[in-house]
């Protein structure tokens, strides 16, 4: 599965799919493929066979979106295997809970990867060390967001180490502001799991119950029913149109969850949405 985003390359590697899982690891590479970041390579035996020798040599950083084992659990094994080929990437993660971490980024800290600019967006909630990585090619404006378990297509992560207010800040302030509105439609979203089908099912059952209530959601639902892989197919602008966790002020969303008068705070709406999703 090789996706070309013009000047950058994003290779999505399925992990744990044969055993009922739905994780993705990603190889983000420059146009000439001489430099790359390997994002969340949790399953060594599934990731390494998907990388050829020049791809392995190109890896400058292993980057984790958060410390959970199905994202960070492969760091040590990948380092050991690459070390045998004398390849020694650094490990970028939101905290030292991720094994072998060498670099912990500040919010909005920037890195360069060849001609690409990577900005680290700290989004505490799913875990306190959650980081999203926004990548931009300044020449073409092509962009990608590696959103871990914070933002999923038509959904968001569980609040394991945080609360509804933190998720509202993460999704609707930090990510949106750091990417910047002119870039929302240019930024493809690459989440940590393929959850789109389940998320669409929830949204249809609990939020946009009738067709035509949200045309963007209707299109997303159709796509998710016809495609097992949706990562990289939708943009941040799309999310603002169909993802209820990014539409906390939408009267249809509020009415569907019990706020008929639109009098709840955003945090109350976020909290109720997540609770409804948790019990589905
Ligand atoms: Zn997680």
TrEMBL record:
Pathway: Secondary metabolite metabolism; methylglyoxal degradation; (R)-lactate from methylglyoxal: step 2/2. InterPro entries: Clx_II_MBL (IPR035680), HAGH_C (IPR032282), Metallo-B-lactamas (IPR001279), RibonucZ/Hydroxyglut_hydro (IPR036866). Its cofactor is Zn(2+). This is hydroxyacylglutathione hydrolase. SUPFAM superfamilies: Metallo-hydrolase/oxidoreductase. The lineage of its organism: Eukaryota, Fungi, Dikarya, Ascomycota, Saccharomycotina. Belongs to the metallo-beta-lactamase superfamily. Glyoxalase II family. GO terms for biological process: methylglyoxal catabolic process to D-lactate via S-lactoyl-glutathione. GO terms for molecular function: hydroxyacylglutathione hydrolase activity; metal ion binding. It comes from Zygosaccharomyces rouxii (strain ATCC 2623 / CBS 732 / NBRC 1130 / NCYC 568 / NRRL Y-229). The keyword Aminoacyl-tRNA synthetase does not apply. Its EC number is 3.1.2.6.
């Amino acid at each position: 599965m090789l996706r070309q985003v013009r000047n950058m390359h994003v290779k999505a590697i399925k992990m744990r799919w044969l055993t009922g899982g739905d994780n993705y690891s990603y190889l983000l590479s420059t146009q000439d493929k001489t430099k790359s970041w390997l994002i969340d390579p949790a399953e060594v035996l599934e990731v390494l066979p998907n990388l050829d020798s020049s791809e392995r040599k190109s890896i400058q950083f292993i980057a984790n979106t958060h410390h959970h084992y199905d994202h960070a659990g492969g760091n040590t094994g990948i380092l050991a295997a690459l070390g045998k080929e004398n390849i020694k990437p650094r490990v970028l993660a939101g905290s030292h809970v991720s094994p072998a971490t060498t670099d912990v980024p500040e919010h909005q800290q920037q890195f360069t990867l060849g001609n690409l600019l990577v900005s680290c967006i700290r989004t505490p909630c799913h875990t306190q060390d959650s980081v999203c990585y926004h990548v931009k090619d300044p020449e073409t404006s092509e962009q990608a967001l590696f959103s871990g378990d914070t933002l999923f297509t038509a959904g968001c992560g569980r609040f394991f180490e945080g609360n509804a207010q933190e998720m509202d800040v993460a999704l609707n302030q930090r990510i949106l502001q750091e990417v910047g509105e002119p870039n929302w439609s240019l930024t493809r979203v690459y989440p940590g799991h393929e959850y789109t089908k389940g998320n669409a099912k929830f949204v249809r059952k609990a939020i946009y119950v009738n067709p035509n209530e949200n045309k963007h959601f209707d299109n997303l639902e159709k796509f998710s029913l016809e495609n097992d892989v949706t990562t990289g197919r939708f943009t941040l602008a799309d999310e603002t149109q169909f993802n209820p966790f990014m539409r906390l002020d939408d009267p249809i969303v509020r009415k569907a969850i019990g706020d008929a008068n639109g009098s709840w705070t955003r945090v109350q709406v976020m909290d109720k949405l997540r609770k409804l999703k948790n019990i589905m």
